[in-house]
């Protein structure tokens, strides 16, 4: 048993590694969406003031020009409250080429001259124009946005602001601590806007788009009314060697939208760190759980051996005391001893317990709530099995209640490959009648043991409760390789019980491709 335990453990470990990798992929997908939402939130926060200025200019006709000017100035100054907005301005050019320039509270004469020169170079194709560019200035990397709109009175109104991308990255990296992966943001031209290594900010990062181009990434998102909506069905990913970490990373590419401008978000996750460390931890937990399950199994086996020995000694004494009874009485005692032995074998089934603990091990990580129900059901099953009772009969109601708990455990083990239905066509009086103890469980277990159970060929068991008997049916798909330790103990137990009570209507057989068993009630 110890050898089998270690061999089984070594065979299961690679499967655990495979399942762990799949789970980590799912976790990474969740982290990806979380990071995308963070990036979208921060860039939309930056864009709010600029967006408000656009709305003010677009609704200029509904308000006086002085009101709009004051509102633009207020919005421009308010934008400076954001930690990463470097400068902002408002400029009005009249028809007589007279400039009215209102700059932010940060007085910078060189900046004012630069903006005035830039505004003169702006060429209008339509009534409004939007400029979104990235430039390097005095060692800083600036994302400059300008919006200009012609008015009916021949005036042109300009508003804009500069975002310090180095400052933005400093805030972003401090506020959102990484969990093993890192985030890179680029604009639609492939120019880096955020990167953990600031030397890449403001430069084209072509090494990120060698195998997946910028055009492919933008096309992987749906464009609706000028906005990019992420297509969650076709997320793009690629493996590469990180220029930042020097490790192999798994990169996910997606598109977010700020205003009308698409941004490319690249999330990189180190494969070795995420997979190897997590897999090692899970394998450690599995080893402890396996050891606990094996120890529990051996303890139960030891207790059962001691109990068997005790009952064997007691049975020997009973046989010695009753040797003087007549032959018919000796036959009754022999059959009764067989029934007790079979009942004892059913009470503690090591294979059932070991399979249940294996199912519980898998269920703990996948569904903690369901695993708690599983443990309670397993406890109820063994409480029922170990309960002391006189004779080998039980009411139909109690047997069905126990069967439902037993089926709950088995259906979790086999998932959708096993289906057990119970149809009651009778009233409460019939549920009080007697049948052999564990008879329904024996037939269900027998069907599971001797038939194929796969997704393609699921095992379907029907239990019909009628006035005079209970019928148990299952589709007959016998396994190609029969179980070596099968001795038909279960069916022999039921047959001996009905013979003891002199009932001849207990029948089993294959009818129309189904294995059918008829269980008459015992009075």
Task: Tell me about this structure.
This protein is α+β, with helices and mostly antiparallel strands. The longest helix is centred in the N-terminal third of the chain and has 57 residues, at 2-58. The chain is built from 13 helices and 19 strands. Strands 2-1-5-4-3 form a five-stranded antiparallel beta sheet, sandwiched between helices. A five-stranded antiparallel beta sheet has the order 7-6-12-11-10. It has a five-stranded mixed beta sheet with strand order 14-16-17-19-18, covered by helices on one side. It folds into two domains: 19-272, PAS domain (Beta-Lactamase, 2-Layer Sandwich), CATH 3.30.450; 325-520, 2-Layer Sandwich (Heat Shock Protein 90). It is elongated and about 130 Å long. The mean pLDDT is 81. The chain has helices spanning 2-58, 65-79, 109-121, 165-175, 214-219, 271-321, 327-347, 350-366, 368-385, 396-414, 428-431, 439-450, 489-500; strands spanning 85-93, 99-103, 128-137, 140-150, 156-164, 182-187, 192-194, 221-224, 227-230, 236-241, 248-258, 261-270, 393-395, 418-424, 434-436, 459-465, 469-475, 507-511, 514-520. It comes from Polaribacter atrinae. Pfam families: His_kinase.
């Amino acid at each position: 048993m110890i050898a089998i335990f270690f061999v089984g453990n070594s065979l299961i470990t690679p499967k655990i590694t495979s399942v762990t990798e799949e789970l980590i992929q799912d976790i990474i997908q969740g982290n990806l969406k979380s990071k995308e939402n963070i990036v979208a939130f921060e860039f939309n926060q930056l864009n709010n003031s600029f967006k408000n200025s656009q709305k003010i200019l677009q609704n200029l006709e509904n308000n006086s020009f002085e009101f709009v000017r004051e509102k633009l100035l207020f919005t421009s100054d308010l934008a400076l409250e954001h930690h990463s907005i470097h400068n902002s301005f408002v400029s009005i050019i009249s028809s007589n080429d007279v400039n009215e320039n209102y700059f932010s509270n940060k007085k910078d004469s060189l900046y004012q001259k630069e903006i005035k020169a830039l505004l003169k170079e702006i060429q209008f194709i339509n009534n409004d124009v939007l400029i979104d560019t990235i430039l390097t200035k005095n060692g800083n990397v600036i994302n400059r946005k300008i919006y200009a709109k012609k008015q009916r009175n021949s005036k042109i109104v300009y508003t804009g602001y500069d975002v310090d991308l180095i400052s933005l990255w400093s805030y972003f990296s401090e506020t959102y601590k990484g969990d093993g992966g890192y985030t890179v943001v680029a604009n639609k031209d492939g120019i880096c806007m955020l990167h953990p290594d600031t030397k890449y900010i403001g430069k084209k990062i072509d090494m990120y788009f060698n195998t997946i181009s910028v055009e492919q990434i933008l096309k992987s998102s749906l464009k609706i009314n000028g906005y990019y909506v992420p297509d969650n069905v076709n997320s793009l990913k690629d493996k590469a060697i990180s220029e930042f970490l020097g490790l192999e990373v798994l990169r996910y590419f997606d598109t977010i939208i700020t205003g009308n401008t698409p941004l490319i978000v690249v999330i990189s996750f180190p494969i070795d760190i995420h997979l190897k460390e997590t897999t090692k931890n899970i394998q450690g937990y599995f080893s402890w759980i396996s050891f606990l399950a094996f120890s529990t199994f051996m303890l139960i086996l030891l207790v059962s051996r001691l109990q068997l020995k005790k009952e064997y000694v007691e049975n020997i004494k009973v046989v010695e005391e009753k040797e003087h009874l007549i032959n018919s009485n000796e036959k009754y005692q022999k059959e009764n001893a067989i029934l007790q032995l079979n009942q004892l074998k059913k009470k503690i089934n090591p294979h059932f317990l070991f399979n249940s603990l294996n199912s519980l091990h898998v269920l703990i990580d996948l569904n903690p709530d369901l695993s708690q129900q599983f443990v309670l059901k397993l406890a109820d099953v063994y409480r029922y099995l170990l309960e002391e009772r006189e004779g080998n009969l039980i009411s139909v109601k109690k047997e069905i209640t126990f069967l439902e708990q037993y089926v709950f455990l088995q259906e979790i083990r086999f998932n959708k490959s096993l289906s057990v239905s119970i149809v009651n066509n009778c009233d409460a009086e019939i549920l009080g009648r007697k049948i052999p103890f564990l008879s329904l469980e024996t037939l269900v277990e027998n069907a599971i043991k001797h038939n194929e159970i796969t997704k393609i060929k699921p095992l379907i068991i029907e239990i019909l409760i009628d006035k005079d008997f209970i019928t148990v049916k299952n589709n007959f798909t016998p396994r190609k390789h029969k179980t070596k330790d099968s001795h038909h103990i279960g069916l022999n137990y039921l047959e001996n019980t009905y013979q003891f009570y002199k009932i001849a209507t207990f029948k089993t057989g294959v009818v129309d491709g189904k294995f059918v068993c008829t269980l008459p009630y015992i009075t």
